[in-house]
């Protein structure tokens, strides 16, 4: 009985060692684990083209040069995005050259447009298959008859996402430059010192911010602060949504941060950019588009 038990224990020891060896081989990826799967490399991010060969602009009255040349009218010739004026040197002229800009840049912005209007404008822009699309919109979403009528942040986000989706269907490789919404409260602060400007404001220019321009009571202050907070929320949306699109570049809040002075404001309404202000917007955009990072 002792010899048989000794042999049995020996057999068990041999089998155990064999099993441990097999398990150890599996643990380190031996033959029984099957063929090793090749590692996948992350998809490279497309390089930003700092010299696009064509461009289209979408947005609102700022991109149409509203009130820059005359009272209550568009002046696209001085548009920061696509204008031909030598006083402005628009983004299109700076990027494409004056001759090429005349035939390879298009302005689909509409005065009074809000974010809800952007998908339709983007459809027009996409039909050109531009290398670059500029976006400046949001001021009219905050400039309503009352703060209650301002576009909600969720609707603003949905509209911007829809607009980018429209572009991607027809022009998947188009780059997008997104300008931040201007600091409307600063525009009020600068323009309220001009009596003529305040008279024009009464015609319905951004009433949520500019109504009762000289009122400094608690209600007026709260109203303006509410508009300002909404503008900041819009800019956060522009930044976040743009960041999800590998061919989209947000201006980092540069337009919002720009300190428009009286020289940069229209001398008809003291709210929209003047010719000088349009030139400053063109400079900001050019720096952002031409930046390698």
Secondary-structure blueprint:
Blueprint: H1 2-27, E1 55-59, H2 91-96, H3 98-104, E2 105-107, H4 118-126, E3 132-136, H5 139-142, H6 153-170, E4 175-178, H7 184-191, H8 195-201, H9 207-210, H10 218-243, E5 248-250, H11 254-257, H12 275-290
Helix pairs in contact: 4-6, 6-10
Shape: globular
What is the N-to-C succession of helices and strands? HEHHEHEHHEHHHHEHH
Strand order of the largest sheet: 2-1-3-4-5
Beta-strand level of the residues, as a percent range?
A: 5-15%
Content-based structural category: alpha/beta
Task: Note the gap between the termini.
Answer: 83 Å
Mean pLDDT: 89
Largest beta-sheet details: 5 strands, parallel
Helix count? 12
- In the predicted model, the low-confidence regions spanning at least 5 consecutive residues are 1-33
Number of strands: 5
Summary tags:
disordered N terminus, 293 residues, alpha/beta, 46% helix, five-stranded parallel sheet, globular, 12 helices
Structural features, described:
Residues 1-33 have low confidence and may be disordered. The radius of gyration is 30 Å and the shape is globular. The protein contains twelve helices and five strands. The chain has helices at 2-27, 91-96, 98-104, 118-126, 139-142, 153-170, 184-191, 195-201, 207-210, 218-243, 254-257, 275-290, and strands at 55-59, 105-107, 132-136, 175-178, 248-250. The chain has a five-stranded parallel beta sheet, sandwiched between helices. It is of the alpha/beta class and 293 residues long.
């Amino acid at each position: 009985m002792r010899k048989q038990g000794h042999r049995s224990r020996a057999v068990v020891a041999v089998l155990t060692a064999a099993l441990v060896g097999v398990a150890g081989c599996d643990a380190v990826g031996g033959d029984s684990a099957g063929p090793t799967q090749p590692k996948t490399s992350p998809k490279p991010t497309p390089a930003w083209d700092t010299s696009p060969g064509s461009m289209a602009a979408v947005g609102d009255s700022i991109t149409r040069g509203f009130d820059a040349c005359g009272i209550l009218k568009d002046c696209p010739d001085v548009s920061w995005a696509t204008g031909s004026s030598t006083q402005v040197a628009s983004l299109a002229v700076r990027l494409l050259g004056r001759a090429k800009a005349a035939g390879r840049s298009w302005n689909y912005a509409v005065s009074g447009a809000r974010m809800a209007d952007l998908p339709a404008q983007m459809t027009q822009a996409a039909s050109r298959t531009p290398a670059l699309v500029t976006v400046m919109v949001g001021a009219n979403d905050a400039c309503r008859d009352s703060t209650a009528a301002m576009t909600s942040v969720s609707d603003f986000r949905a509209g911007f996402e829809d607009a980018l989706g429209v572009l991607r269907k027809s022009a998947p490789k188009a780059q997008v430059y997104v300008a931040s919404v201007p600091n409307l409260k600063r525009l009020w602060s600068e323009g309220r010192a001009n009596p003529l400007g305040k008279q024009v404001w009464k015609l319905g220019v951004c009433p949520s911010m500019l109504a009762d321009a000289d009122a400094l009571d608690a209600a007026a202050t709260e109203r303006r602060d509410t508009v300002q907070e909404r503008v900041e929320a819009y800019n956060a949306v522009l930044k976040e949504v743009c960041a999800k699109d590998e061919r989209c570049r947000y201006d980092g809040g540069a337009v919002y941060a720009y300190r428009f002075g009286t020289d940069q404001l229209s001398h008809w309404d003291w709210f929209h950019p003047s010719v000088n202000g349009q030139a400053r917007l063109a400079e900001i955009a050019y720096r952002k588009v031409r930046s390698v990072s």
